[in-house]
Amino acid sequence: MMVLTMDEIVNAICLHIAERKQIRPQDVQVELFWDEDTGYSAEVWAEGRSQYLVESNMIEAIMRYLYSEYNIRAYREQITLDLDEEITAHVDVEMEQAY
Q1: Are strands 2-4 and 49-54 parallel, antiparallel or unpaired?
Q2: What are the DSSP E strand ranges found in 17-76?
């Protein structure tokens, strides 16, 4: 089991949005949320605009981050978001499974 911190989730989203919009990751700001009705989400500011990501978009960003930063291919079903003191991502993959 691998755990990504809130900072790593924010980095994953910044890298994901930056790549999609072809801008620098430093030009992306992210704020994570959890709400009882809507679940996990993130508000992203890039190029002077704001957009919201739902949980599935956040998991997509985490999947890309795991592959690019850790060389780990994780599937959607292996990633769950959790809230204790902060939002974290639990990845159900062993480090030996890295490709």
Answers
A1: unpaired
A2: 28-35, 39-46, 49-54
Which of 32, 97, 25, 35 shows the shortest CA–CA distance to 59?
Answer: 32
Scored b (16 or more CB within 10 A) or e, 66-86 reads: beeebebebeeebbebeeeee
Triad 83, 40, 6: Cα angle to 5°: 50
Instruction: Please report, to the nearest 10 degrees, the dihedral formed by the alpha carbons of residues 38, 33, 54, 37 taken in order.
Output: 0
Which tens digits make up the pLDDT trace of 33-74? 999 999 999 999 999 999 999 999 999 999 999 999 999 999
Taking the mean position of all CA atoms in its chain, how far away is CA 7?
9
Distance CA 62, CA 73 (A): 11
Distance CA 68, CA 86 (A): 24
Residue 3: enclosing H or E segment and its boundaries?
strand 2-4
